[in-house]
Design goal:
The chain is mostly beta strands and 120 residues long. It has no helices and 11 strands.
């Protein structure tokens, strides 16, 4: 099946920056969408940013202007550059990848999550 490896989370002071990485591997015929979601304690999981294989991007209003999502198609890897971080950004960040494991079989896959903590 498909495996996702997330990295780049950690502790940072308000105003600082982090770059998250998500590398996909396994039974991948092609990748349709790669995205980042986050979930803070007591809150529902929400979309942060997503990018298609064609390069189209989508951002949550709360991170527009501060975050940039990118991808390396050849490496099956997505990145989330986060700048000007705020305590409100503190959450577990999850990578989600929509792939085709064969020409006609689609699959959604979630990473295990990486903690981002922004101190004030």
């Amino acid at each position: 099946q498909v495996q996702l490896v997330e990295s780049g989370g950690g502790l940072v002071q308000a105003g600082g920056s982090l770059r998250l990485s998500c590398a996909a591997s396994g039974s991948i015929f092609s990748i349709n969408v790669m995205g980042w979601y986050r979930q803070a304690p007591g809150k529902q999981r929400e979309l942060v940013a997503a990018i298609t294989s064609g390069g189209n991007t989508n951002y949550a209003d709360s991170v527009k202007g501060r975050c940039t999502i990118s991808r390396d198609v050849g490496k099956n890897t997505a990145y989330l550059q986060m700048n000007s971080l705020k305590p409100e950004d503190t959450a577990v960040y999850y990578c989600k990848v929509e792939v085709y494991t064969s020409p006609y079989v689609r699959s959604n896959n979630w990473g295990q999550g990486t903690q981002v903590t922004v101190s004030s």
